[in-house]
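Subject: Protein record for review, amino acid sequence with backbone structure tokens
Why sent: The fold of this protein is of interest and is recorded here as tokens.
Notation: Tokens come from a learned vocabulary of local backbone shapes, not from coordinates.
Attached in line: The record itself begins immediately under this heading.
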Amino acid sequence: MDLLTTLQAQRAAFDAERPVAAAIRKDRLTRAIRLLVDNAEAFCAALSEDFGHRSREQTMMTDIIASVRTLKHARKHLDRWMHPEKRKLDFPLGLLGAKAWVEYQPKGVVGVIAPWNFPIQLTMGPLAGIFAAGNRAMVKSSEFTPRTAALFEELAPRYFDPAELAFVSGGPEIGQAFSALPFDHLIFTGATPIGKHILHAAADNLTPVTLELGGKSPTIIGRSADVTQATERVAIGKMLNAGQICLAPDYLLVPDDKEEAVIGGLMSAASALYPRLLDNPDYTAVINERHHVRLQSYLDDARAKGGKVIDVNPAGENFAGSNGTKMPLYIVRDPSDDMAVMQDEIFGPVLPVKRYRTIDEAIDFVNGRDRPLGLYYFGTDAAEQRRVLDRTTSGGVTINDVIFHISAEELPFGGIGPSGMGAYHGHDGFKTFSHARAVYRQPKIDIAKLAGFKPPYGQATRKAIERELTM
């Protein structure tokens, strides 16, 4: 596929179609749903092959059903989202018959660079907002999930004309060429270092960019927290997709007098959720050997620097002799700031647990690092919860659980600073992929003269100036 030719064909088709009626947008959303429903089992099989093993039920829930729900939500609310928004005018313009409103126009052609960890949901989720806004799209799939990428390329033409939706896959060279295309908008989901390159490439075309990155999402366990409930929910979030989630709890901050209880709770919860791992169809493997080696190096580094590493291996399985990339949950006690697990986004089943004495100490620790994509607080102390919310900054927050804020369609999903820029999902996604076009209609009366804006300037002008400068 010639990337620029495809982009030009999509833009020409977009210009010829304008305005993009609600019925056309709903039809594209419906066809996207049909693509997933018709081929759900094929996508599950492809993803499992890409990962070495990935739970079918997990893929169904996190990729297929999550995407279908997002697309249906956009289809359901589209008419309301498309309605122009009336805006108030300062006195006396409204009284004189002037009108103002905002129309949400499609931008044109949107580029999507999808990641490997949830390659279906993080393709189809953005497409919900893109299609709802009336755009066309080109998608660059991850080279780390080649079978899933190939399936998208095979199936998409059965449901969409290439001038509506086109898929391309390939390595860094294709990614670089893709991000340098003059899109009308570009959304990238992936690692922060790559996001910097994407932003540089898009800058040459002044392409607006949404970056969904990652970072080290902290979890604060308050003294008022139900430890059993909190540790089970953290274990579920950390072990889902083997921790390969941009919103996975990256490290725990626990009161110094609750450390033993928290670690015991994590071990009990992980063992109950996954009593065995190697042959457990519910537990996903690490994506490839490169990432498996990276995670092992974090553990070696932690041990070398005095950390205590606990492997939660309830069945006593031999992972070293398994010839696979599955890993148990590893808990790292007494992590120091110079350890790799406290510097890099972990993206795997490794969880550092750090003690704090006061809640302000925990807050200061979070604030001393890059602003994260997610932040999690467990506790029933309302004043402490408010203090954590008021004194920290993150892309989003879930209270008394982890990750769940991403599942609320009408909450904006996005990061801040190194964890991303811009947001999408629901109405916010529709707005992200639309151009908010301001429209002002002037009445017949000579407003410029009445307001003193019309030369030659005189007494009316001076009175207008004096009036506006009055406190």
The radius of gyration is 26 Å. The chain has two domains: 3-213+421-435, 218-414. The domain at 3-213+421-435 is CATH 3.40.605.10 (Aldehyde Dehydrogenase; Chain A, domain 1).
